[in-house]
Amino acid sequence: MTTGWSIWVMFLVVLNMGITFFLFLWAPHAKVPSRGDGTTGHAWAGGAIREGLRPLPRWWIVLSGAMFLGAFGYLWLYPGFGAHKGKLGWTAHGQLAREVAANDARLDPLLDRFRMYSVEQLAGDGEALQMGKRLFEDNCAACHGRAAHGNQALGAPDLTDHDWLYGGTGKDIVTSITHGRGGVMPSWSALGDTTVKDLAQYVLSLSGRPHDDLMAAVAEPIFKSTCAACHGADGKGNQGIGAPNLTDGIWLHGGSLEAIETTIRGGRQGHMPNWDRRLDADDIRVTAAYVYSLSHPGHGDAD
Ligand code: HEC
Ligand code: HEC
Question: Which ligand 1 atom is nearest residue 166's CA?
């Protein structure tokens, strides 16, 4: 706090306390006009209510006096009077540091236990899941949704469906969270609009959806030469580069004919941020355990 601010705060404190003290001394002696009937003559509600004149109750005066003295005590012990640090040396930072340390001390034994388990085992530990759920809601729900069903507009996958772009073992999930992911589907508009439409029919055929046989047949060799490098000759995808399985009826960017054509024509990019700078390794493991549990409901015990 600069000296100017300090003086200003001190001035305000002295002014407020001064006014209060003055009222306190003055009020009992104040001359209030009174009538013969013992009222002030102020009347409301057409005279039905008249203001009486009674001395302040003693308990009220004693209590106010105690609070007034208490305020001095507080300003002596705690910061409040300008830059005066207070006799106890209390600071908000200090209090926060003590509370964080106490919380760490409480969590340490829990985290020690968690470190002995694999992510898959942690997914069967109620306390780990509770922590993981909270971390998920704070950090991940914005894109993947509170129930983790994903968001096609953002290209954020459903994490509950057992269909993995990059693999669904505990280790794969930890890697996805720690380092982030970024799948790139190139744009194929250069192939021409007719070919894009043929390819979309072929993609529909891969998951057994109604499609135009002739167009799909025309596109098949193009898929094998152009798309199979990433999506595989059978269209089942490649977890090494996050190329989705096109045969399972689960869509990252939408499975309507229009959405598929848009994907092929314009390409798509997914960006999953890396969390290694925002979450520590323990937090990432419990979050991964929570994610793992979502597609393994009733996942067994932790031993
Ligand atoms: C900014 C939006 C965003 C946030 C926040 C986010 N994600 Fe993601 N996440 C994505 C996108 C987009 C992808 C798909 C990446 C791709 O297409 O290559 C993804 C992919 C993943 C995958 C890989 C899924 C698979 O099928 O292999 C996992 C696991 C995952 N996220 C978990 C998390 C967790 C846990 C958090 C919170 C710590 C989180 N995400 C936060 C957008 C996000
Ligand atoms: C360089 C590798 C690569 C090639 C080549 C490639 N893709 Fe992709 N494709 C991807 C990746 C990676 C994604 C996921 C993008 C993301 O993470 O958002 C994807 C996504 C898609 C999707 C969206 C799937 C969904 O679930 O919404 C479709 C459809 C698709 N590709 C079709 C094709 C077709 C057709 C071709 C050939 C013309 C092709 N891809 C060529 C890498 C590739």
Answer: 27
